[in-house]
Amino acid sequence: MSKPSNASSDLELMEHADGETGGQTGDSGVAARIERDSDARAKVAAIQEVGELVRGHLELSADAVHDAKFAAMWRRIDDQLGAPATGLWSRVTGWFDRYRGHVITGAVSAGAVAALALILRPSTPDPGTLGRNGGVIDVRPVALRATPEIDSLDTPGGSSTVINLDDEDGHTTVIWVTPADTVEGI
Amino acid sequence: MFAAQRGDRDAFKTLFERYHRRAYTLAFGVLRHQDDALDVVQDAFIKAHKYLDKFEGNSSFYTWLYRIVMNLAIDHLRKHRRAKPVELDETRIENDGDDPLLPRILGGNPGRALVDKQIRGRIDQALDELSENHRAVLVMRELEGLSYEDMAQAMSCSKGTIMSRLFHARRNMQKRLLDLIDHPSAELVNDLTGGQVGEDTPANDEALPQRAPARSRS
């Protein structure tokens, strides 16, 4: 029988050093070898030191990355995590929640008020939007039939844009309000 | 963790703050490129958030996260392979009978050794020169302490292949580092001995500790 090569017996040392022998019967032989053979002990120690050097070096390399990079990373992640709905309908309803008072005080032109009525869709779902199990299907306009008409509109505390558009649900008017204290880029 | 599963964005941010650097260390160790590693970590957190409801809590969040990071890093390597690595025949380790593990180490004080720029540069060089597979196994083992079996699953290969890769990776690291030690500069000797050798002392092997007692993993 040929003597095991250095590498294959060193492989056993490596398994032992990594705690991978799991109580195998051969491990007692390896342990005995390490006990009596200083060269084997040094190899096990060398394996452990290589590990510590690699781990320490990589951790120091990671520490060298500026916090600002990770802060920017979080902002990008946060932007993608269930970001507030950016669809047309959610923007409109969001706007209406914020500016309901302005509309009611009558500072909006008659045409715009009439248009606004079109976007106040009923809270109860249209029968056509109910799913098989009675759940509401989220229906949003996905295509426009014609180029939207866009007009400007003065509203209290800011300026507005009235957008008349024809989508799959028919005619919709969107009033987009920009408060006067809004500063772009901040 | 459970708060994050319920949709608490602040709780997920806490998880990010706790683990992002550790995840980056893993990704950087495998990819060796800062921007690539940052991209992988970002994608990993987005993916983790997307599938948060599928996380059953059988392992720690980080254990789950590192698997995502590792899978993304390995995918990234496959998709953006910059150079074709020269692979050894990993199933024939017996061919390396003349090239065993080296019984020499830097002196048993890695913390001190890592102060030296030459050593860190040499570790970088050695990591860069390893094949991607060898490097991935070394990093998984040394950073995360993964078992051979877990690494075999992560890399879709046999446990024997993992052992072979790890053996080669460690031995190549040793060789690179000992090349440096065999011809040490005065600065290196000073760093490794903690200044116990005076500046006038010629740099030589005798000045460097050759081995240290085995220590258990912390």
Topology (elements, then pairings):
The complex is a heterodimer of chains A (186) and B (218).
Chain A: H1 6-17, H2 25-36, H3 38-63, H4 67-80, H5 88-104, H6 110-119, E1 149-155, E2 158-167, E3 170-179
Antiparallel strand pairs in A: 1-2, 2-3
Chain B: H1 2-5, H2 9-31, H3 34-50, H4 61-79, H5 110-113, H6 117-129, H7 132-144, H8 148-154, H9 159-182, H10 186-193
Helix pairs in contact in B: 2-3, 2-4, 2-7, 3-4, 6-9, 7-9, 8-9
Number of helices of chain A: 6
Query: How far apart are the termini of chain B?
Result: 26 Å
How many E-type strands of chain B? Answer: 0
Overall mean pLDDT of chain A = 66
Strand order, biggest sheet of chain A? 1-2-3
Shape of chain B: globular
Provide the CATH top-level class of the largest domain in chain B: Mainly Alpha
Unreliable runs of chain B = 88-98, 197-218
SS-based structural class of chain A? alpha+beta
Describe the structure.
The complex is a heterodimer of chains A (186) and B (218). Chain A has helices spanning 6-17, 25-36, 38-63, 67-80, 88-104, 110-119, and strands at 149-155, 158-167, 170-179. Chain A is α+β, with helices and mostly antiparallel strands. In chain A, strands 1-2-3 form a 3-stranded antiparallel β-sheet. In chain A, helix 1 packs across helix 3 (38-63) and helix 2 (25-36) crosses helix 3 (38-63). Mean pLDDT of chain A is 66; it is low at 1-5, 100-110, 112-123, 126-131 and 182-186. With 218 residues, chain B is mainly α. Chain B folds into 2 domains: 2-79, Rna Polymerase Sigma Factor, Chain: A (Orthogonal Bundle); 98-207, Orthogonal Bundle (Arc Repressor Mutant, subunit A). Chain B is built from 10 helices and no strands. The model of chain B is unreliable at 88-98 and 197-218 (pLDDT under 50). Chain B has helices at residues 2-5, 9-31, 34-50, 61-79, 110-113, 117-129, 132-144, 148-154, 159-182, 186-193. At the A-B interface, helix 1, helix 3 and helix 4 of A face helix 2, helix 3, helix 5, helix 6 and helix 7 of B.
